[in-house]
Amino acid sequence: MNAHMRNALELAARRVPVLPLRAGKVPFGNCRSCRGNACGGRPNMKVPGPCDCPRPCHAWAAATTDPAVLTGRPWAPVWEQTQAVAYHPGGAGLTVVDLDNDQAVTWARQTLPTTRTVPTTRGEHWIYLGTSRSVNGVRDGVDIKSSMSYARWLGPGTGTMTELPDIVRALVVNETSAAQLAPRAITVPARAGVGQCPHRMPAYLDRGITLAEQRITEARSTVHTTVYRTFLAVLSAHGRCGCLTDTHIKRLFTAAQAKGETARHCTDAWTNALTRLGL
């Protein structure tokens, strides 16, 4: 048993859901179809990938406290390749304020109540009791990691954990509200020399967006999968001709959010589709 597996089992025994990370701080896929993110899961792997695995796939959704899972398939063969152990803070009833630079650490020391701190390669993790949404970039160099997220295990840290303060909850609420009111649209570059849709029929594009909205709206299950595959289909047809506008993208995001997707999930699904197509 190597050190990473030992750490994982010790954390699991304390009811902290854990998972192995490979090089680049990226989770291992749970099955062959998910290796190298081939299933279309989000690049940062913070939600289950839209695949047909028989169990939740990737990262926080696969984190477990079950020693039989940690020492059995699919993870038993990967511990020798593991570069770090990660955990799901929300699953352990915790929130990690990830401070990624000296300025962020200074802000925390001046603003936040003291709690357990863990040094990182570039800053510190401040760990609080209580859960919240996970939101990146609530301030420069400050990410909030709790539900639907994972953080590297870097040791027990020092200090006594205290309750999650209202100031952190407010940062999360403000950032989430802004994202919901104004979903971030991601435009795609037009090919050189192409100024309009090569289909030469604006009605074709509008009908395509309408059908895409309908497909998302009619999804009865696997909404993550439907949204990703719909975005992929739209970009396959129109992603290289420069005809998609912010209005078209907002229509798709709005349909997805009506089915319960967050603005961040929409943005990540769109980005992943762009990456899949090489755009």
Keywords:
alpha+beta, 279 residues, four-stranded antiparallel β-sheet, 9 helices, five-stranded antiparallel β-sheet
Structure description:
With 279 residues, this protein is an alpha+beta fold. It is built from nine helices and nine strands. The protein has helices at 3-13, 59-62, 67-71, 102-111, 166-181, 202-217, 223-238, 246-258, 263-277, and strands at 18-22, 26-27, 84-87, 94-99, 116-119, 124-129, 135-139, 142-145, 151-152. The strands form two sheets. The protein has a five-stranded antiparallel sheet. Strands 2-1-3-9 form a four-stranded antiparallel sheet. A hairpin with a 4-residue loop joins strand 5 (116-119) and strand 6. Helix 6 packs antiparallel against helix 7 (223-238), helix 6 (202-217) packs parallel to helix 8 (246-258) and helix 7 (223-238) packs across helix 9. The radius of gyration is 21 Å and the shape is globular. 37% of the residues are buried.
Low-confidence stretches: 40-52, 176-195
Distance between the termini: 43 Å
Shape: globular
Tally of extended strands? 9
Strand order of the largest sheet: 5-6-4-8-7
Helix content: 25-40%
Order of helices and strands: HEEHHEEHEEEEEHHHHH
- Portion of residues in beta strands equals 5-15%
Number of helical segments? Answer: 9
Sheet bearing the most strands, described? 5 strands, antiparallel
Mean pLDDT: 79
